[in-house]
Automatic annotation (TrEMBL):
Subcellular location: Membrane
GO cellular component: plasma membrane
Name this protein carries in UniProt: Amino acid transporter
Any one GO MF annotation of this record: glutamate:sodium symporter activity
Entries under InterPro entries matching the protein: DAACS (IPR050746), Na-dicarboxylate_symporter (IPR001991), Na-dicarboxylate_symporter_CS (IPR018107), Na:dicarbo_symporter_sf (IPR036458)
Highest taxon listed in the record's lineage: Eukaryota
UniProt organism field: Paramuricea clavata (Red gorgonian)
Membrane topology according to the record: Multi-pass membrane protein
Pfam families: SDF
Keywords assigned: Glycoprotein, Membrane, Symport, Transmembrane, Transmembrane helix, Transport
Family: Belongs to the dicarboxylate/amino acid:cation symporter (DAACS) (TC 2.A.23) family.
Transmembrane segments: 36-60, 72-95
Length: 122
C-alpha cells in the first residue's frame, strides 16, 4: 500500500511536469489500473458483507432474524441511494461536458481512438 502511494505521488509529479499535449491520455493510462483495482475491491466487499449477514441471520431465531433482515435491507437501500445521489451531484459539478466530446480528426470528423474504445470495454 505504501509503495503504491509513493508510486502515485511520483506519477502525479511526472504528469504535472509533462508539457506534452497528450497529458489527458497519460492520466487515462495511469488511472486505468487503479480503476480496475477499485472495481475488484468492490466486487469482493459486497459478497463478504452479504454472506456475513446471512450467516448471522442463520444463528438467530425467526423473529429476530426478520427484524434484522428488514433493518439491513433498509440500511442497504438508503446507503445506496445516498451514494448514487452524491456521485451524480459531484459528477455534474466536477466534470465539464465538453471534456467528454469525441476527438476530431484532421478532416474534422469526430471519432474515438481504438485504445479508448478497448479501455472503455474493460
Amino acid at each position: 500500500v505504501v509503495l503504491g502511494f509513493v508510486a502515485g505521488i511520483w506519477a502525479n509529479k511526472k504528469v504535472q511536469e509533462s508539457t506534452k499535449p497528450s497529458t489527458t491520455e497519460l492520466v487515462m493510462f495511469i488511472s486505468f489500473p487503479g480503476e480496475i483495482f477499485l472495481r475488484m475491491l468492490q466486487l469482493l466487499v459486497l459478497p463478504l458483507v452479504v454472506s456475513s449477514v446471512i450467516v448471522s441471520l442463520a444463528i438467530l431465531d425467526k423473529k429476530s432474524a426478520a427484524k434484522l433482515g428488514k433493518r439491513f435491507a433498509c440500511y442497504s437501500l438508503v446507503t445506496t441511494l445516498l451514494a448514487v445521489t452524491t456521485g451524480v451531484i459531484l459528477a455534474s459539478l466536477i466534470i465539464n461536458p465538453k471534456e467528454n466530446e469525441l476527438q476530431e480528426n484532421k478532416n474534422g470528423d469526430k471519432s474515438l481512438n481504438a485504445v479508448h474504445s478497448v479501455l472503455d470495454m474493460i
